[in-house]
Protein 1
Amino acid sequence: MKMLSARDRRDRPPEEGVVAELQGFAVDKAFFTSHKGILLETELDFLRCVSAIIIFLVVSFAAVTSRDGAAIAAFVFGIILVSVFAYDALKIYRTEMAPGAIQGDQH
């Protein structure tokens, strides 16, 4: 596969069709359906939950230091969101990242 620079692409005649427009953004569908791709997607989803927990905890505790009514409401809302993201992270871990450990515990 030959890599073309922007100058080479400019000098070529334009290709027709939607595929030609999206040629630089091709996604390897075989990778995302493979075991590694599914594991990568699961790990990224788990990291999203963990980072959201950290961010909401920091923001909630920073908001409650002002001791206003709205700040206390923001703290309570933040704690509720932290619990939702923690539950989501737990479910992701139990179902997709460590399913063998859970099945081994039941037997």
Protein 2
Amino acid sequence: MAANDRPPNQMEKEQIFGMAEKEMEYRVELFNKLTHTCFNKCIEKRYKEGELNMGENSCIDRCVSKYWQVTNLIGQLLGSSRPPM
């Protein structure tokens, strides 16, 4: 049986779980930052309506799109400068 075919031991399971937990924390933080940034940028401080108007909706679409583009670009740049494992 090859080394890659064996089931993970307890320590490996804990490492995998820890990495998954960190990934989830990162994603929640990213979502919260995106929400906070785009809300502050696009929504008026004094609410006039219960629904988003067309300008706010358009602003949020552009803000989220740009935020994801920048986040992906940064991830690619950081990933390319990471030394091989």
Protein 3
Amino acid sequence: MAHSFTQEYFQIPVVTRAYTTACVLTTAAQLEVITPFQLYFNPYLIITRYQIWRLITSFLFFGSLGFSFVFNIIFLYRYCRMLEEGCFRGRTADFVFMFLFGGIMMTLFGLFANVFFLGQAFIIMLVYVWSRRHPLIRMNFFGLLNFQAPFLPWVLMGFSLLLGNSIVVDLLGISVGHMYYFLEDVFPNQPGGRKLLMTPELLRAMFDRPEDPDYLPLQEEQGGDLQQYEEPHN
């Protein structure tokens, strides 16, 4: 069983595996090693005390272990993996560059939005990009709502609002996700448009490798909390 788990773990694409593992370990570490006060985004401490790690840990912490943590990890794993195995398959460097773009933009916006943890916003960004690139997929939200994939980030924001949470984090993720989608997918295809987001060659040298022939991607049709299916073409 341990061998099977290890084999399945290393079947997860590298970026999804690294980010999901870091999130789980960082959140679990609060039980014994660290506290949220050592992780949250604090520009003052970053600049004056040189606590640079906060630029990263604010994206890795999802609160105490519980329903919210499990919900976020499931969404992170699912949509991060489907992006990496779908439109970013064979383009790991481009995927890492999207992570860097999203992280930098959220950090800049976080200076003004008074957001202490940016991980949930980052998940919403991933969901937004995936949903805009799969507009024909229909979603089923806990058996209550049926809608097209591009509405998914807004449904999640409404669900967060119903739970009494602030929607600032969701709006931040949607905004950054739309910025990436517009600059990467929309503007280059407009008359007079051009590609503005260029992946550095250093990232390509570091991350782009030949694809493993035994690699098994996660199928988008598999069920979960959110069921989805491709809309038939006429």
